[in-house]
Design goal:
- About 35% of the residues lie in helices and about 15% in strands.
- The chain is an alpha/beta fold and about 170 residues long.
- The protein has a two-stranded parallel ribbon. Strands 2-6 form a two-stranded parallel sheet. The protein has a two-stranded antiparallel sheet with strand order 3-4.
- α1 packs antiparallel against α2 and α3 runs antiparallel to α4.
- It is globular, with a radius of gyration of 20 Å.
- It starts with 11 loop residues before the first strand and ends with a helix.
- The relative contact order is 0.14.
Length: about 170
């Protein structure tokens, strides 16, 4: 655990959880944070293991994709960004990975109405897969058609072709 008030190295984050404050702790492997009592043991006791008293600090983030942030003596940050969606098959997991890669790659493009629309559609698909383990066929077909048309710079990204291939695998 970093000392209270210490920022993440480099000020960047992709997924995971960051904490700041007295007795805050994080467990990236478990995908969620936990509190420790005054002895450094996992929480417990009448107050549920939550620390009492002050603490504090600051978290400075330059860039963050996914994840969770909490500050303060009883701050709790929980991130499920690394969790496997419920009921997702191999093809859907590959699609989710491809969608996330394309969204990351799109950051190098100039913002236009088209890039905003594609990013919004990708975000909806990512959210749907994360929540339910699948994405609607109609939404996937519309995204595939939009990317295959190549009418914008998004279609020129290599990760765009990976999304189209992953959609084809999911739709069959």
């Amino acid at each position: 655990m970093r000392p209270p008030g210490a920022a993440a190295p480099g000020g960047e984050g992709t997924g995971g959880a960051e904490e700041s404050g007295h007795a805050a702790d994080r467990d990236p492997a478990a995908g969620r944070d936990r509190f420790r009592d005054g002895e450094g043991r996992p929480g417990g006791g009448a107050d549920g293991g939550r620390p009492r008293g002050g603490g504090g600090g600051a978290v400075h983030i330059g860039t963050m994709t996914g994840g969770a942030i909490a500050t303060g003596a009883q701050g709790q940050a929980t991130s499920y960004s690394g969790a496997v969606p419920p009921g997702a098959d191999e093809a859907t997991l590959a699609l989710l990975e491809a969608v996330r890669a394309l969204r990351a790659d799109m950051r190098v493009l100039a913002a236009t109405e088209e890039t905003a629309a594609v990013d919004g559609e990708l975000g909806e698909i990512e959210g749907e897969i994360t929540r339910t383990g699948r994405a609607g066929e109609g939404r996937l077909a519309r995204l595939r058609d939009r990317l295959e048309a190549g009418a914008s710079a998004v279609g020129l990204l290599a990760s765009s072709a990976a999304v189209v291939q992953a959609v084809a695998q999911v739709l069959g």
